[in-house]
Specification:
The complex is a heterodimer of chains A (about 350) and B (about 425). Chain A is mainly alpha-helical and about 350 residues long. Helix content of chain A is about 70%, strand content about 0%. Chain A has helices spanning about 10-15, 20-40, 45-70, 75-95, 100-120, 125-145, 150, 170-195, 195-205, 210-215, 220-245, 255-270, 275-300, 310-325, 330-340; strands at about 155-160, 165, 165-170, 245-250. In chain A, a hairpin with a 2-residue loop joins β2 and β3. The radius of gyration of chain A is 21 Å and the shape is globular. By secondary structure, chain B is α/β, with parallel strands linked by helices. In chain B, about 40% of the residues lie in helices and about 15% in strands. Chain B contains 13 helices and 12 strands. Chain B has helices spanning about 1-20, 45-65, 90-105, 115-125, 155-170, 185-190, 195-200, 220-230, 240-255, 275-280, 305-315, 325-345, 355-360; strands at about 30-35, 80-85, 110, 130-135, 150, 175-185, 205-215, 235-240, 265-270, 290, 390-400, 400-410. In chain B, the strands form 3 sheets. Chain B has a 7-stranded mixed beta sheet with strand order 7-6-8-9-10-11-12, with helices on both faces. In chain B, strands 3-4-5 form a 3-stranded parallel beta sheet, sandwiched between helices. In chain B, β8, α9 (about 240-255) and β9 form a beta-alpha-beta unit. Classes of the chains: A mainly alpha (about 350), B alpha/beta (about 425). The interface between A and B is large, with 44 and 47 residues.
Chain lengths: ~350, ~425
């Protein structure tokens, strides 16, 4: 046995492993340690931001499976989050279900809603599918408003705090741990889903659905599976969001959020689990940065200088990425890694 | 080039690290007012005026230690006020992190910038014992009354006032027909409660149904208005902001609907469909439009509160005058927040002041707060009493001007407490 330079895989299983090197395992351990100790040194505000980022990451993972891997563009993702959130809220608030049962039920309900609204994808694609998913967003919100006796309509619905046995997850730190656990689980599942036969079928459909069908991939089955899985993720995210607020309201799921989730995917890089995380983190942090910069800009320039700053910057960032880095932050990250892998013998002078 | 790149990366990383660290001890003897604003979105104009007013009022209090020209009480001389605000874009998720940030900075009063934010934050604020002024006044605040305080009437009470006024002027023997014509969002739909419909029927109306108009319409609401015409509606009431009310009335006029049009129908909204803003933009085209619970026009200098607004602007923003009516709302919010802090400090020393003190010994103790007639009556709050005013002023646009046509007591339509 000779010694190796660099990472050498000696089996197919080794090559496919998510964590292949000691560095990978070390980074994972350090990251989990960081997450675990966050509440010790971060303020409530930072925990709130990180919790929101975690929820966004779960949602974007779902959209990534649906859009990034399977190529079924959806601009109704916030609507599916609303389905999961409201289903979970109703089960907890009206029927007294515990959170741990309500959350998977909510996710399942969102998945079923995804199946229903995914049906048009069998006949239409591209621009026409976008229109169908936009319609889904509005139909879902309209339905929630109409079912006033169950959902509270526009007044919303108070939801009890989630609890594990007798422990009520009322503190920011508790809920942060809960969301991060779900985020890690969702990431691991997303990473694995795309490595399965189903994941490969999704990619084949995305790349060329006609060729995929000729190869024997059932478009009917796999497209609906993508909608189901993507919307289950949205349902989990919606449920976590509503339980965090302890209140369900249609205003928590605006149409523009669906657009921004797609934006997160563009910024992070479609068809990449890491990209989905990067996109969600980047746009959420940008949001927070703009919130902090707003008052400074307003004082320095004009009172209304801060108005619409977030909308403008988000739009601008998405345009910039579409033009200069269409493969997203993930691709840029891979290039940086490649640069350091070759360092000091990089190709750059 | 590589060095510059690394330098930029390092600076960004240092800035990000600094931004996530908990805030250190703040300067002594400083109290914060203000809170989250919706400078992006449909309430941007309103919010900008509110923010400008809060800033001006705080400058006034800091400089003079007075609380208003008509008041004798003084704010403690050794304490400085500072305005803290962030733009929440009317997004609940963003408002939540802003709330946490401002709370962590030691803010003991807060504000609500719109119904979506109110629905997301009201329970949290109650848990934190955080008193807040609110630009939104939906009936959700009364189920149960908590710690968000309004300074113009709850929407349903505003509509009840319009209904009472219209009924008092009704000459025909048949029952007048009423319908909701309201914004298609949480604010607009918050009026659809059984108590509201029951009240309308109790005072002698025939309730016909509801039509929704987008908060900011992108096309004239022709279908909705035609439906009202076909149903023979005499009074349409709802809650809208001006960007919704103005195109609606323009289309009404085009369809020949209105108090002075061939098809007689009156359209009334609760504030924030302010008649003063409406009249300024629409002129005589908007004649007949009714608004309840709103503020007076900014040029009505006979009113002490409005003269105070003018004086503040002359002093603190010469040449950059804010003409929007919600400047008055900002002055009210500043007055309420500062008064709550002052009252609390009467009982608890600055060093020991907590959010709970400001709520219980401040907001709850505000009685007959004289506002120079900016609000329709002096403001009174208490535990379980979050609706500051006792009466509602009704304004109508006549010959392009705002005319006060009635003042009715609050009906307290929403009883679910």
């Amino acid at each position: 046995m000779g010694s190796h330079f660099g990472a050498v895989q000696e089996s197919y299983a080794q090559d496919l492993a998510i964590f292949r090197t000691k560095l990978h395992w070390g980074a994972l351990f350090a990251f989990l340690l960081f997450l675990f100790t966050c509440p010790l040194f971060f303020s409530d505000r930072m925990l709130t931001i990180m919790t929101m980022i975690g929820i966004a990451v779960i949602s974007v993972h779902g959209l990534n499976i649906l859009t990034g891997y399977c190529g079924q563009i959806s601009i109704g993702h916030a609507g599916f989050m609303a389905v999961g959130g409201y289903a979970s809220a109703i089960l907890c608030a009206k029927l007294g279900f515990p959170f741990w049962i309500a959350l998977p039920c909510g996710a399942l309900t969102a998945g079923i809603a995804g199946l229903i609204f995914g049906l048009p994808s069998l006949k239409i694609k591209g621009f026409y599918l976008i229109m169908a998913t936009i319609a889904a967003q509005f139909i879902i919100i309209w339905t929630i408003i109409q079912l006033r006796s169950i959902t509270g309509g526009p007044d919303g619905l108070s939801v009890p705090k989630p609890a594990i046995g007798s422990i009520v997850l009322s503190s920011k730190a508790n809920y942060f741990y809960l969301v991060m656990a779900f985020t890690c689980l969702a990431t691991l599942l997303a990473k694995n889903i795309v490595r399965t036969r189903t994941g490969r079928a999704f990619i084949a459909i995305r790349d060329n659905d006609l060729a995929a069908e000729v190869m024997g991939i059932s478009l009917w089955s796999y497209k609906l599976q993508a909608f189901f899985i993507g919307c289950v993720y949205a349902g989990v995210a919606g449920s976590l969001l509503i339980h965090y607020y302890s209140f369900a309201s249609i205003d928590q799921f605006p149409f523009m959020d669906s657009v921004w989730y797609l934006g997160m995917l563009i910024v992070g890089g479609m068809g990449s689990t890491t990209g989905a995380i990067m996109g969600a983190v980047a746009l959420r942090l940008l949001d927070e940065l703009i919130t902090m910069v707003g008052p400074i800009l307003s004082a320095a320039v004009a009172p209304q200088a801060a108005a619409s700053l977030a909308l403008i910057s988000h739009g601008l960032i998405i345009i910039i990425f579409l033009i200069f880095e269409p493969r997203g932050l993930h691709h840029r990250w891979e290039m940086i890694k490649a640069y350091f892998r070759l360092w000091p013998f990089s190709h750059e002078e | 080039m590589a060095k510059i790149r690394w330098l930029v990366v390092s600076v960004i990383m240092i800035l990000m690290t600094l931004s996530v660290l908990p805030d250190g001890a703040e300067a002594q003897k400083k109290l914060y007012v203000g809170g989250t604003q919706s400078l992006t979105g449909p309430f941007a104009e309103d919010s900008a005026a509110v923010l400008a007013a809060i800033e001006d009022y705080v400058k006034y209090v800091n400089e003079t230690k007075n609380l208003g020209p008509w008041r004798k009480e003084k704010f403690p001389a050794d304490i400085t006020l500072e305005v803290l605000w962030r733009d929440d874009e009317l997004k609940p998720a963003k408002a939540l992190s802003i709330y946490e940030e401002l709370k962590a900075k030691g803010m003991m009063v807060a504000r609500i910038s719109g119904s979506p934010i109110a629905l997301a934050l009201k329970d949290k604020m109650w848990e934190d014992r955080m008193g807040a002024t609110s630009m939104a006044t939906g009936p959700y605040y009364l189920s149960p009354p908590q710690s968000c305080f309004t300074y113009y009437p709850i929407y349903t009470d505003s509509l009840a006032a319009i209904a009472d006024w219209f009924k008092a002027n009704w000459k025909e023997t048949r029952k007048p027909k009423v319908a909701y014509l309201t914004a298609d969002n949480a604010m607009g739909r918050s009026i659809e409660i059984p108590e509201m419909k029951a009240y309308l029927e109790k005072v002698g109306y025939e309730f016909v149904g509801t039509q929704y108009v987008p908060l900011v319409p992108t096309s004239p609401p022709t279908t909705q208005l035609t439906w009202l015409k076909e149903k023979g509606v005499d009074l349409a009431v709802g809650v809208m902001i001006n960007p919704g009310a103005q195109p609606t009335v323009k289309e009404m006029v085009r369809l020949g609907m209105g108090p002075y049009q061939p098809y007689k129908m009156t359209f009334g909204t609760g504030a924030p469909g302010h008649a003063a803003v409406f009249a300024e933009a629409m002129g005589e085209l908007g004649d007949g439009y009714v608004c309840a619970g709103s503020f007076r026009p900014m040029d009505d200098l006979a009113i002490p509160g409005i003269k105070f607004c003018r004086d503040l602007q002359d002093k603190y923003r010469p040449g950059k005058r804010v003409t929007h009516i919600m400047y008055q709302a900002g002055i009210l919010e500043g007055m309420i927040q500062v008064e709550a802090l002052r009252l609390a400090m009467n009982e608890v020393p600055f060093e020991k002041l907590t959010r709970r003190d400001v709520l219980e010994k401040g907001f709850f103790k505000i009685k007959n707060l004289e506002t120079g007639k900016i609000s329709s009556t002096p403001l009174t709050y208490g535990e379980g009493d979050i609706e500051g005013v006792d009466q509602i002023r009704i304004d109508q646009v006549q010959k392009g001007k705002v005319v006060e046509v009635g003042l009715t007591p609050l009906r307290h339509i929403f009883t679910r407490k």
